[in-house]
Design brief:
The protein has 169 residues and is an alpha+beta fold. The chain is built from four helices and five strands. Strands 1, 2, 3, 4 and 5 form a five-stranded mixed sheet that branches. The mean pLDDT is 81.
């Protein structure tokens, strides 16, 4: 009879242990890793939001009618709009501007795709008080628009990379 009671105690203990393990580890959904979160982002603003920053988008029209998207990080985490402003407002803190441009066949996302926030130059600059702007070349993901041509037509693509750094006066 002692063995039977020990068996019951052992069985109940084993059941409680398995139930505890199931409840603690297996029944709960696993949290997404930050890498997965960042990989799921489809836009510059989403990527910035994953790090806790609010990004802005601005559109610049070139002389030949291309519409280029510029991204901007101008506020530290938790900083309100009233602290940052344009030249039209007088009671705002003006910050020094830093312009970052991607390399060949890239876009502005290249600057913020680091997994470690502290390794990201733009985020460090923003936290140090800079107003950070990001350019995008015509034809990339963020600058596929023109007033004169559809991006699906060959005329849209009738430009040279040489012209990326040439601004006639």
């Amino acid at each position: 009879m002692v063995q039977t009671e020990n068996s019951k105690v052992y069985t109940i203990s084993l059941f409680l242990l398995i139930s505890s393990i199931w409840h603690t580890y297996l029944s709960k959904p696993k949290p997404k890793s930050f890498t997965s979160t960042l990989q799921a982002c489809t836009h510059f603003t989403d990527m910035c939001a994953a790090f806790g920053y609010e990004a802005e988008e601005h559109v610049l029209q070139t002389k030949d009618g291309y519409l280029l998207c510029l991204h901007r990080l101008c506020r530290k985490k938790g900083e309100h709009y009233s602290v940052v402003g344009s030249n039209l407002r007088r009671r705002v803190k003006h910050k020094p501007v830093v312009y970052l441009h991607h390399g060949l066949l890239m876009n502005s996302e290249v600057w913020i795709c680091q997994i470690e926030e502290k390794l990201s130059l733009p985020f460090r600059l923003v936290e140090e008080g800079y107003d950070v702007w990001f350019g995008n070349n015509r034809g990339n993901k963020y600058s596929k628009k023109s007033l004169n041509h559809l991006s699906s037509k060959p005329e849209f693509w009738n430009f040279s990379m040489v012209g990326f750094n040439y601004f006639p006066h």
